[in-house]
C-alpha cells in the first residue's frame, strides 16, 4: 500500500480548542459527527 504525506496546512477554529483539549486528555476512540460541510474531515486529519 502506498502512503502519502499530507502537506496541506489546516486551520483549527478557536471553538474547537476546548474540545481538542478534552479529547487529548482521554483515551480511546473518537467518533466525529456533524452536518455536511462542518469540518469533520479536517478535524479527523488534525487528530490523525
Architecture overview:
This protein starts with 16 loop residues before the first helix and ends with a helix. The protein is about 35% helix and about 0% strand. It has one domain. By secondary structure, the chain is mainly α. The model has no long low-confidence stretch (mean pLDDT about 75). This is Bacterial type II secretion system protein E domain-containing protein.
Labels describing this entry:
48 residues, mainly alpha, Bacterial type II secretion system protein E domain-containing protein
Largest sheet: none
Mean pLDDT: 75
Q: How many angstroms does the end-to-end distance come to?
A: 18 Å
What would you report as the Rg, rounded to the nearest angstrom? 12 Å
Order of helices and strands: HH
What is the strand tally? 0
| Unreliable residue stretches | none
Q: State the shape.
A: globular
Strand content range: under 5%
Tell me the domain tally.
1
Tally the helices: 2
Structural class: mainly alpha
The amount of helix comes to 25-40%
Structure summary:
The protein has 48 residues and is mainly alpha-helical. The protein has two helices and no strands.
Question: Helices, strands, pairings?
Answer:
Layout: H1 17-25, H2 40-47
Amino acid at each position: 500500500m502506498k502512503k502519502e504525506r499530507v502537506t496541506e496546512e489546516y486551520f483549527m477554529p478557536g471553538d474547537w480548542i476546548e474540545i481538542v483539549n478534552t479529547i487529548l486528555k482521554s483515551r480511546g476512540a473518537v467518533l466525529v459527527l456533524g452536518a455536511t460541510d462542518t469540518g469533520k474531515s479536517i478535524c479527523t486529519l488534525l487528530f490523525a
